[in-house]
Amino acid sequence: MHIQIRSLIFVCSFAMALVPNVGTGQENVSPQSGPRRIDGYRGIWFDLGQRSEFGSKYSGGLGTYTAKHHPLAIYVPAVQKTFFVYGGTTEKDKRHLLAMASYYDHQTKHVPKPVVVHDKEGVDDPHDNPSIQIDQNGHLWVFVSGRGRKRPGHIYRSRKPYDIESFEHVASSEFTYPQPWWIDGSEFLFLFTKYTNGRELYWSTSNSDGKSWNEDRKLAGMGGHYQVSNEQNGHVITAFNMHPGGNVDKRTNLYFLQTNDNGKSWTTAQGELVELPLTDPGTAALVHDYRSEGRLVYLKDIGFDADGNPVVLYLTSSSHQPGPNGNPRTLTIARWNGTEWIIREIANTTHNYDMGSLYIEADGTWRVIAPTEPGPQKYGTGGEIAVWVSTDKGATWKKTQTVTTNSSMNHGYVRRPRNAQDDFYGFWADGNPDALSESHLYFINKTGDQVWILPYDMKTSLAMPKALRTRD
To answer: How far does the signal peptide extend, from start to end residue (predicted)?
Structure first.
């Protein structure tokens, strides 16, 4: 029986001065003297404001936005906790963005009151949401995204290992869409975006102290790009699209690059060495030419198969505007089999920003958890969450679970923790895309037959998330 679910940054050789936010006041950054906590898990609500016949380009509960922020959660066996970050807010129905950090304790099944790592003050835009990484000593690193060339990004480091009580502000610099990867025994490899000529892709490296960074290096500049990346045993992979003429509404094509030496060299899936930055849309890094087909490409996730080969999750569409004119909107995978790229379709969705995550499991199961089902706000961002499974390396897919039904608000942006555990396998937020609303945070188990809602209001320092049964 179903029930209703309600809905490093690169420290440059100079200190970058903090600059005013566009029309939203200024950020004042200082090291934390002690934890500032919020009395519950309250996700940020946002509306981009680009509206057409069927609503906003994207809007709603975007606490786990964007797809280009990685990772958002990491499970640590040493302490049996999943640490996670998200874009929160101060009070109910407020649009005051806070970069939040917390954890789920797998032993006690409790969560603490979440900690404010960085207060964005006048900013309400979840493009400034954080991502997280953990170094070899257990220190948590929170990369708080900037926006464009006006709002800088910030980097924070926990003062104690595996601890959210206090963070020190390490530095500020220009970056958006932070994707930091810790290469064990080596250094950070940080992938990010700078608005130098459109949204161009860069990377930088740092030694283990995370304070001294090498020069920013440009990865790709074809008018702009969005990317998703991942790391396994020092092997970093990235998939990205391109923006013809710098127009993000024309995003198209699928590209792939990888490095096994922390950015010293980059190759295609075939192992062909490329010269950077990429500037030719016809580069050898091209996986599929969607531009010639008139299809748009929205990146969602990327992972490794059992042989260490890349698998990319993305959505193709015929329009950047919401509504039926953009159909079909098709959730798709591209996998490298060691010789060629194989592309297969999973399911159709109702919105370009129906973001989900890809799980490639040890027993050969491939799993996608995403808002593929129409939600109460049919043409808005997100929908109802479903689980799709493949047992033949993505050749065919079957929906095994409809996770949420009869919700009052759309659910979206399901995020996969690194080293995800069965009882905290993905987390997301809900919200009403059509009007300002509260936004709750949820997490799910591996099979998708159990969902928990994080407490929106907390009167005690620790609380147990409420279990919402979805099936007897």
So the answer is: 1-17
Rounded distance, CA 211 to CA 163, Å? 20
Give CA separation, 145 vs 47, 48, 65, 119, in Å: 18, 17, 11, 12
Angle formed at CA 270 by CA 234 and CA 8, multiple of 5 degrees: 30
Backbone torsions φ then ψ of 88, nearest 5 degrees = -110, -175
**Amino acid identity, residue 51?**
R
Instruction: Give the residue among 38, 4, 37 at the shortest CA–CA distance from 457.
Output: 38
Task: Tell me the C-alpha distance between 341 and 287, whole Å.
Answer: 7
Widest pairwise Cα distance in the chain:
60
Check residue 127 and report its DSSP letter: G
Query: CA distances (Å), 383 to each of 65, 239, 300, 371, in order?
Result: 15, 25, 16, 5
Q: Render pLDDT for 282-336 as a digit per residue (tens, 0 to 9).
A: 999 999 999 999 999 999 999 999 999 999 999 999 999 999 999 999 999 999 9
pTM: 0.93
CA angle (13 as vertex; 12, 17 as ends), nearest 5: 65
CA distance 199 to 176: 9
DSSP result, 165-195:
S-EEEEEEE--EEEEEEE-TTS-EEEEEEE-
**Burial level of 376, CB count in 10 A (0-12/13-18/19+)?**
middle
Give the Cα separation of 358 and 416 in Å (integer). Answer: 7
DSSP annotation string for 273-340: B--SSB--TT-TTEEE--GGGT-EEEEEEEEE-TTS-EEEEEEEES-SSSSGGG--EEEEEEEE-SSS
How far is 440 from 444, CA to CA, in rounded Å?
14
Please report the pLDDT score of residue 272 as a whole number: 98
399 with 387: CB under 8 angstroms? yes
Tell which residue, 43, 36, 24, has the closest CA to residue 91.
43
Length of the chain: 472
Residue matched to tokens 């016949």: 53
Superfamily of domain 45-468: Prolyl oligopeptidase, N-terminal domain (2.130.10.120)
Phi, psi of 291 (to 5 degrees): -60, -40
**Burial code of 58-75, b = ≥16 C-beta within 10 A, e = fewer?**
bbbbbbbbbbbbbbbbbb
Indicate the burial class of 245 (C-beta count within 10 angstroms; 0-12, 13-18, 19 or more).
exposed
